[in-house]
Design goal:
Elements: H1 10-20, E1 45-46, E2 57-58, E3 63-64, E4 70-76, E5 83-91, E6 94-95, E7 99-100, E8 109-114, E9 120-125, E10 140-147, E11 150-151, E12 155-156, E13 167-172, E14 178-182, E15 192-196, E16 198-199, E17 202-203, E18 207-208, E19 219-224, E20 230-235, E21 240-244, E22 255-256, E23 268-273, E24 279-284, H2 299-309, E25 315-320, H3 322-325
Antiparallel strand pairs: 1-25, 2-4, 3-4, 4-5, 5-6, 5-7, 8-9, 9-10, 10-11, 10-12, 13-14, 14-15, 15-18, 16-17, 19-20, 20-21, 21-22, 23-24, 24-25
Length: 333
């Protein structure tokens, strides 16, 4: 039988727990929205450096709950090995240190996404569909629901949305529709963007978004606006693009955000709008403004450089979300 799992080695999980095993007294006093960080202007800035942006490889943007009282994200602790979902929450008015999410830490899990009601998280995982299934390396969507003050057991999202290929990068609109990227058969390119409509308590068969968004290359890591008026995603150029919904329901010609985000040959991905709509988060491998090296570095060189810069292969950035509306084509409402 097919499996979507990838078991974390004991050493990896031990390392993750050791890194996160600090007490509240050892952790900086963080209070208020966005972990108490000062919101950025129209030039991208690192988000929460040394707290959520670290020398490790952050592999998703911060997904805050609807009430803003907890935040989830994923990180690689050992280069391209298995990833772990972490979280922080407000306790007695201050943010806790990062912890491993109670539904993560055993398999490779990433890209947590809250559903509109805030009671569920959809995430991608390589865990087995059934215990004991053989490993195939594919990634599927799983969902976990709040159970009182904690979380229940994750369950596979099912084979209407999932396929025998990669499904990654979940994003939900206010009406519950699920947007994501997939390498499933029948697309326009190597990875396409899809939408599965939330209807009568379940997801419908995913529909390919088609041209002009999907091309013969890679389109990945989408973020859908709550009202589905625009979609952000990474293209195979490594830059983020935005496409706006037209009055007839079709999508406008995608516009590159490279110049707006000071893209300089880096890889920008995982766009995510804050719940209040004021800031845009994304992850980038830009070296604090310097071009990502064209030459292939060894793992030792990458680790040394990342440590010296306090900047890993993927870092969280944020920027004022007003930049999105400024890219809307002339004449489009």
């Amino acid at each position: 039988m097919r499996q979507t799992g990838y078991h974390l080695g004991i050493g990896v999980l031990t390392l993750a727990l050791a890194i996160l095993c600090c007490t509240q007294n050892d952790f900086p006093l963080l209070q208020g929205p966005y972990l108490g960080q000062t919101p950025p202007g129209t030039t991208p800035e690192l988000f929460a450096p040394g707290i959520m942006t670290t020398e490790y490889h952050e592999h998703s943007s911060p997904a805050f709950s609807a009430d803003g009282n907890d935040v989830y994200w994923s990180v690689f602790f050992n280069f391209w090995g298995p990833q772990v979902i972490l979280y922080m929450e407000l306790e007695n008015g201050r943010w806790t240190p990062p912890r491993v999410a109670p539904f993560s830490g055993q398999y490779s899990d990433g890209n947590p996404c809250f559903t509109p009601d805030g009671q569920k998280i959809i995430f991608e995982s390589r865990r087995p569909t059934h215990e004991g299934d053989p490993y195939t390396g594919e990634t599927d969507f799983w969902i976990v629901e709040r159970d009182g003050s904690g979380w229940g057991e994750p369950r596979h999202l099912g084979w209407t949305v999932n396929s025998d290929k990669w499904e990654r990068g979940p994003s939900t609109s206010a009406n519950g529709n699920l947007y994501f990227c997939s390498m499933r058969e029948g697309g326009y390119g190597q990875m396409d963007l899809y939408c599965s409509t939330w209807m009568d308590g379940s997801y419908t068969e995913p529909e390919n978004l088609g041209p002009p968004i999907n091309t013969a290359g890679y389109e990945s890591w989408p973020f859908i606006a709550p009202d589905e008026s625009y979609i952000l995603y990474e293209s195979d150029s490594g830059a983020l693009f935005v496409s706006f919904r037209k009055e007839d329901g079709s999508w406008s010609e995608p516009v590159s955000m490279a110049e707006t985000l000071n893209f300089a040959g880096s890889q920008d991905r995982f766009p995510l709008l804050s719940n209040d709509g004021k800031v845009l988060f994304f992850v980038s491998n830009r070296w604090l403004g310097n071009r990502y090296p064209d030459t292939r570095l060894s793992l030792e060189e990458i680790k040394a450089r990342a440590k010296s810069l306090s900047n890993g292969l993927g870092n969280m950035f944020w920027v004022d979300a007003s930049i999105i509306g400024k890219l809307k084509p002339d004449g489009q409402k």
